Amino acid sequence: MQPFLAHPFDSDRLHEECGVFGVIGVTDAANFVALGLHALQHRGQEAGGIISHDAEQGFNSAHRFGYVRDNFTKQSLMETLPGSLAIGHVRYSTAGTKAATAIRDVQPFFGDFSMGGCAVAHNGNITNAMALRKELIERGSIFQSSSDSECIIHLMARSIQRNIPERMKDALRRVEGAFSVIAMTRTKLIGVRDPLGVRPLVLGKIGDEGYVLASETCALDIIGAEFLREIEPGEMVVISKGEVESSRPFGPSTGRFCIFEHVYFSRPDSIIGGRSVYETRRQIGVELARESPIEADLVCAVPDSGTPAAIGFAHESGIPFGMGIIRNQYMGRTFIEPTEQIRNMGVRLKLNVNRALVKGKRVILVDDSVVRGTTSRKIKDMILDAGAAEVHFRIASPPTAWPCFYGVDTPDRGKLLAAQMSVEEMREWIGVDSLAFVSLDGLYRAVGEARGRNAANPQYCDACFSGDYPVAPFDQLERGFRMKPNSETSGVEITGHAAE
Amino acid sequence: MQPFLAHPFDSDRLHEECGVFGVIGVTDAANFVALGLHALQHRGQEAGGIISHDAEQGFNSAHRFGYVRDNFTKQSLMETLPGSLAIGHVRYSTAGTKAATAIRDVQPFFGDFSMGGCAVAHNGNITNAMALRKELIERGSIFQSSSDSECIIHLMARSIQRNIPERMKDALRRVEGAFSVIAMTRTKLIGVRDPLGVRPLVLGKIGDEGYVLASETCALDIIGAEFLREIEPGEMVVISKGEVESSRPFGPSTGRFCIFEHVYFSRPDSIIGGRSVYETRRQIGVELARESPIEADLVCAVPDSGTPAAIGFAHESGIPFGMGIIRNQYMGRTFIEPTEQIRNMGVRLKLNVNRALVKGKRVILVDDSVVRGTTSRKIKDMILDAGAAEVHFRIASPPTAWPCFYGVDTPDRGKLLAAQMSVEEMREWIGVDSLAFVSLDGLYRAVGEARGRNAANPQYCDACFSGDYPVAPFDQLERGFRMKPNSETSGVEITGHAAE
Amino acid sequence: MQPFLAHPFDSDRLHEECGVFGVIGVTDAANFVALGLHALQHRGQEAGGIISHDAEQGFNSAHRFGYVRDNFTKQSLMETLPGSLAIGHVRYSTAGTKAATAIRDVQPFFGDFSMGGCAVAHNGNITNAMALRKELIERGSIFQSSSDSECIIHLMARSIQRNIPERMKDALRRVEGAFSVIAMTRTKLIGVRDPLGVRPLVLGKIGDEGYVLASETCALDIIGAEFLREIEPGEMVVISKGEVESSRPFGPSTGRFCIFEHVYFSRPDSIIGGRSVYETRRQIGVELARESPIEADLVCAVPDSGTPAAIGFAHESGIPFGMGIIRNQYMGRTFIEPTEQIRNMGVRLKLNVNRALVKGKRVILVDDSVVRGTTSRKIKDMILDAGAAEVHFRIASPPTAWPCFYGVDTPDRGKLLAAQMSVEEMREWIGVDSLAFVSLDGLYRAVGEARGRNAANPQYCDACFSGDYPVAPFDQLERGFRMKPNSETSGVEITGHAAE
Amino acid sequence: MQPFLAHPFDSDRLHEECGVFGVIGVTDAANFVALGLHALQHRGQEAGGIISHDAEQGFNSAHRFGYVRDNFTKQSLMETLPGSLAIGHVRYSTAGTKAATAIRDVQPFFGDFSMGGCAVAHNGNITNAMALRKELIERGSIFQSSSDSECIIHLMARSIQRNIPERMKDALRRVEGAFSVIAMTRTKLIGVRDPLGVRPLVLGKIGDEGYVLASETCALDIIGAEFLREIEPGEMVVISKGEVESSRPFGPSTGRFCIFEHVYFSRPDSIIGGRSVYETRRQIGVELARESPIEADLVCAVPDSGTPAAIGFAHESGIPFGMGIIRNQYMGRTFIEPTEQIRNMGVRLKLNVNRALVKGKRVILVDDSVVRGTTSRKIKDMILDAGAAEVHFRIASPPTAWPCFYGVDTPDRGKLLAAQMSVEEMREWIGVDSLAFVSLDGLYRAVGEARGRNAANPQYCDACFSGDYPVAPFDQLERGFRMKPNSETSGVEITGHAAE
């Protein structure tokens, strides 16, 4: 996912792979889905899809590469998606896979079962997908995509249950990992969150009889829906005829929400776990200023994602906040077939330093995270070229030292700067006057845990910082990934795969 | 022009109609032009054009609708524009004209003269274009576009001078209004600014023998060119073989630069008249806080254009700065054939209020200007819906009460809120707790004129605020526009048309 | 299928639904497939697809709407289809179905089995597809298309055989109807014809080690391949490493080739059953002239499909042959979003009468068939408007009185003119001076059966003329189609479905 | 121009460069123009343009690359061309020019004059265009296209006449060469033919008040217009309010119509000079059979253009006519970015020999003309490969030994086979058993001149065969073209240029 206030060097950030949105009980539901997906565009920019159902015209679907606003706003396309029930999905392009995404990899997926059609969209990552796929192919399933999410619909197709919600339970009990799933039948909208609730999913109300499921509350705001509550970890809701039925297909569980959603993924105007994301980020800046103060003349953000923390840092430290780096607002998706000169321009196409402001000043630069670190070096160069006297980096997250296997696109561990170096080594390699990260406890305080992280039983999934994986990454272990020595997955045991 | 840190309700802003960029003495000049135009994209988003010249392949051109980055980055297109000399233009779509722009209206224009080809691109507005066009048609010129700028090349075609720079002088002496023109022959890059220097034009150096002409310094930064100086009001430069020849075709004159470039049009990281645009805008916020203080809990900007002034206001007033309004970064150009629902969404597609932040607070909203005022009302509604206790508007420019005829797309005077109402009436109509504009003197102080505006001999063109037009708008007067009673144009007399 | 020398009123003809082509053992196999499909374009114009396999890059596919020549000739696309083994398919758009074809309906279909991938392309029609689809869905298969042909690959996926050719035998033994199937694995090219051999399939040789399978011999000619032989009814060939293995998965059977392929579907330069299609059609004209002579001044064809029979008729009758109707060669596919005037022009867009030639003459018009008859009326009108003295229709096939269920798109029986009227009634309805069809025996004589049709054991499938269906149309009977009273299907019993 | 029954190796034919069509006095005139241009598509396939005029909406235009049917049939485009008066143009791509045609080269051209707008479309070639263009540029005209036809509108713009028809007379008196011009003002439709009437132009009537001007009668047929008469050589008609005014701006003259229009350019269903083109071509075949008989088994045409002459030859000789070569009807415009294999296929993509028919036979092949001769060799190879015993070429025109400068795209004289070799040398080079061309007198007889060609005062322009140019090709002579020794242009002297 590209964050809402995105980082300019997007290829040096972590990315979530999708956002989901569904609505029932409204006229022209697909239009609402388009708006909701537009509000969730930061969670995936490569492609989007919508499936709708109309009593007369049945199921209809459209899947397109590119932004929601460039596709799903056109009258001519939206007319092909009639009905009062629809779901949609935006997808991030997993960088580095050998082949380009094909349109058939774009969700929602659809299956025609004997009791009727079903569409499914998924945010997260199935950690035992490889094993499931192999087993399903052995038994005669034909996969149409390279997406792991397709397992869910094939597991449903083979379930002997006679209604679709029960089939979904059957399927999801076989699946391990992190997932927020939305689905629809001819008459029902369904939402499920995995037992740990790693990925977000919220419930909203619109009009008299309408309900909405969405990855974030900002997608409720855009359509004027009322935010009711989050779907709970391990909960399934089935919505039909104005009724919301809740059940708990996986038994009792304690949540471990992804703490990086607070740091970078979610939109600052969303509310997660009862807290404003913007306020949390501003508070991280405050914690940083307390933990790692420094004398300087100016606090700047690496725009746009570092801005709330920079405002917090400036406020706490009393050092003035200024716009030292200006972002070009006309940058969009990747270039197609660019000239070499364009390819080599990278930075300057996106940013320009406000020379007159930084010249001669001691500058504190607040950034959200350090992944490969290559970006930090380039930004430091630009600031120094413009005549800054000193450059101090303050990072609004702890060092990112472990890959995420729960729906976030992370580089191999070997490419994570913090997996290879100490903070002092990183400071030297980046070439700045000082470098500091917020502590893990500081981050927990900023999200409202006054006592910081509960090491015995962490309140969040923070595997990317701690290496403490709440669900064993089955396929990855098969492929040779090594967990932290002596670690155990700290989460609840999921019985699905083992029990099989 | 859409400003670099643009306003979200772009249709309720003033717009400049273009940006120009030219370069000589570099390999693959068109690539540099593409980069320069990308940096000037805020001055015009509808369309762009590039003409290049190569010793072997002669003149080549490409004109395209849409963003520079979507067209002029492709290898396959850029290969068709070889050579070491090129100029380009980005164009704003003049909203409200009955017909859509045709591709033939996109500059640069080209003419084949007996002594060789010449390409011309123009930023500004020719105030006697209608009269000139009529005269040229009478004599057998065939206009290919509806653009007033085409007059220039026809006047050149008919000049009896035997070289192109002299023909350009002939042509521009016939032309009235505000213009920064760049042109190229097979071997020369030419730049001219009108006697008042209303529109900007700067000169830069790149490599050993290369020179650049651009609307703003930010376009020099992107290609790593060195900023040499501004072209002076009334100056013409002819650049060839590493030499810059300067002349003054219009006789001596005193400049009247457009003060609105400081307020809104130019990029904050550009330097105009030796001053940082960002710093000027921050200073306007400081002036505002001094002139119109108010008790409140939070200073917010209408993003993104109001941000520097909001930072200045917060700094001066001591009231915390926060991001109360979040802008959706995935909004792009206008929608093509949108559904009605999308059309009606306007605001929410672009902005969302950060509810958790503004709830219960007394909020100061800093905006750059008020044109029709419709936007201000909508934003006020959103802020109040989110639970703000009070809303105070502070505007970083004086009331916009007069149309601009010098290259800015302004509504008819009847649609300018400030032409119809007093400030108190405006406050009531918008429905806010208080409303204040920076004074004209305050604005002059912010741009560095410590004593404010020199009423007898104003340092800038501020006609949109003062109704004091430095050049009589000939065509407009013909069409029935009425100047301020008892006013005279305060600028130098241009002898061109009258002398004819 | 649109015939090679097509009829101008294509919507009033019968259409076959596809052509298939596969090649193994050549460099850049997909290029050969593109050429072969171009030669088979008359068998389907709506869409085409190619799947190739390369040892390093695995399977790749491309499916496109439109002509082969507009898609599969481009370097940039063909580069994505590397390898020495490839198959392809062209598809006719079944007019009148409610929904437009989706790209996922375009063959070849692909399935990933545990022993590797397999691509399948199918020409014909599966008469028990509805029943099979229902059964497969019950067991958990997810269909991706609305195409009946997809059954084949799902049946293969569920087979317990451990190699793909055996799985294909399993699958095709379950399938009823008319089919010529080609398929490919990573190393093998496979071809199968149904027990009656209703649809054509030929084998060719190219280069030292290369083999080709194609619907018609004209597709061998275009790539310079040598025509070896037809695949026999009920035969399967598996080609690998320069070897062709033949087997007979369905037991012994006698062929019943589609006689309409001779009349209209196949290209005149193809050779079927050892006979030139052109010569057969010319001979039908000869038979017509013998059976239904008439005094006249001129023999004309309804271009282009009626031309060979018209030449034969002219030769036999001694009446001069002339081009009385001229076809506009710039007509292509259907219009997209046409103006009403264009929609109403139909005839004149395609044909013009050669007025100077027909004026005052008694004209014999030779056409290939009469389906709805609407076309015949329009042509008659045009000829009379141009001043012809008399118009005599001679039809190069017997009356088309029954729908085809074996891969040809036929109107409902109620819309077939010959199902509703006697020949004299038809003559009157069309409004011509005389009307005659070739007799069924005459047609059999023209294809080389000197004694005509063997009523007890017909040599061809001629169900569209005789109502004698060699395979019971299972799904159609379920839908309420009524066979000829007291008729039995005259063909071999296929045990597949019944035995289940 | 590609002929209506086109030759398969179009690049080895002569091509005319355009067709024109205009209509006044009908509702939605642009729709009629679209239909007319579709019927004239054989005269130019590269691009087309339409300009219409509506009392309320003024002039509107659309210019597009590609076929008429792919552009000017769409509701959405045609709605932008309202009004009861419209003209259009189809353009052939002049092969071999260095640069591709730009859209601004596509006619009709438009000029805004002081008395109103005027659109002009031109079929033919202005032989003094280079000289005129130079002169016009000297005086300040700016050319927008590389088309010679643009001279006309610039000459009109500079005329001191106060109405448009008089300005057109002024302009055309300055122009030399062959031209049929149509033009329109806000209220008038204008047509002019040069004094020799080299290119065709006909007048038709539609409805009560409507009139049509078109290159050929087939374009009247498609819209149901009545053919009134040909515009005479040297005649101008001005049509307005249901009246046709005729005048003769160039003084008296005798026509020299292009005889190649009969041979190849015009559609066979058109009527020229009172004669059916089809019948003329058939008659050429008869003449050929009389002049150059040969014993053989089969007469075949090189499709489609050779067919009428082949029918005539077969009829006269008594040798059966058959379809020995089958043309692929799915070939369209040039390939874009084709693979090398496709590029090398040329012939086979378009034609296939009907092997079963020609095998063992002595074949007479009737073709329309020999230009470079490369095609003839390839066709001969194909026929022999298919097993023909003998191949005899009969050509339905005299040897093409001279380039055309009157609107036909001809190769340089050095590339015309007949300019380099005797008929016997050509026979040997092509490699056929015999080769014969119709004689010039035979051709004249076929067009109805019973006594053949009048050498002293030829009835037609036959410069391509005879080297006898009726108008001196001014620009070509400047460029170094050498006329036939001792020849004079046999036509009327045009006083325009000389008088200047």
From TrEMBL, chains A, B, C, D:
Cofactor, free-text remark: Binds 1 Mg(2+) ion per subunit.
KW Nucleotide-binding (keyword) present: no
Domain Glutamine amidotransferase type-2: 18-242
Entry binding sites for Mg(2+): 305, 367-368
Pathway: Purine metabolism; IMP biosynthesis via de novo pathway; N(1)-(5-phospho-D-ribosyl)glycinamide from 5-phospho-alpha-D-ribose 1-diphosphate: step 1/2
Domain of life: Bacteria
Residue positions binding [4Fe-4S] cluster: 258, 404, 461, 464
Listed Pfam families: GATase_7
Cofactor section: Mg(2+); [4Fe-4S] cluster
Listed InterPro entries: GATase_2_dom, Ntn_hydrolases_N, PRTase-like, PRTase_dom, PurF, PurF_N
Catalytic function, reaction form: 5-phospho-beta-D-ribosylamine + L-glutamate + diphosphate = 5-phospho-alpha-D-ribose 1-diphosphate + L-glutamine + H2O
HAMAP family: PurF
PANTHER family linked: AMIDOPHOSPHORIBOSYLTRANSFERASE
Family of the protein in this entry: In the C-terminal section; belongs to the purine/pyrimidine phosphoribosyltransferase family.
Official protein name in the record: Amidophosphoribosyltransferase
Species lineage: Bacteria, Pseudomonadati, Pseudomonadota, Alphaproteobacteria, Rhodobacterales
